[in-house]
Amino acid sequence: MPNRAHTRQHPHDDAPDTAEAFRSLAALPPGARRDTLRARIVEAWLPMADRLAGRFRNRGENLDDLRQVAALGLVKAVDRYDPARGNAFESYAVPTITGEIKRHFRDHMWTLHVPRRVQELRNRVRSAGQELGRTTVGRPPTVAELAEHARLSEDEVRTGLEALESFSALSLDAELPGREGGFSLTDTMGEADPALDTVVDREAVRPRLAALSERERTILYMRFFGDMTQSRIAEQLGISQMHVSRLINRCCGRLRDQILNDASQPTPRPDPAGRGLRVPATAPRPGDALPVSTTAPSPLRPRP
What we know:
mainly alpha, two-stranded antiparallel sheet
């Protein structure tokens, strides 16, 4: 009776028997013969790597790119596999290739940087949603159902659901659904209101204007609110135009310095004793302006 060679059974047709080749590879020294044998082993297991890459199709990445990543994982598995441990190569190669593909998605496919923990929550929530989708027909599973099925808290489920929307970003030029005439997301975005800076400037200068002398306030009002020229102001006040120019420059410079000095001072904080606002004590410096009441009405008001 002829001897029959022992045929090893593999769970997949793309898992060749390369045990003897791996033992020979481990015994060969670096060189051309070892490189040739290594290439033959990688080529023999490429169909398995392609099958594993196919599991991740339709997730936003090109299938050919996934195959290249899987082939890279296969090469790493061949280089790191030790046949002396007695484990089949397939049991070592499958998690190595799958991990390489998942690492590719984690490092290169997320438009926004998401922590690894949040990515894992996203995967668990997505898997739980797919499994519950077979039983909750006609409606999406609730947060409580997802939390119970995935053994997560409801806050963790909400975090995973938010991460589902962070995998890819929407272009600002993309047209919004249900809109006609090229209405894009950019058209819905607001812009900075320049009037806000004007409000801040007005409130900052209001108490300092109130502290000016009556003649200084009058000159500034006539120049900036009445749109009067320096010559006309000088004529009405009975002074020279040069004097008007010096007064305007001096007032504006002083106002600017005082406002900048106010911005550099510590922010008042509430007094725990209920005595209003207090400012941390600081040593006065030469040239500091004296405090001025902010309750005095401003004599400068724009004309309607």
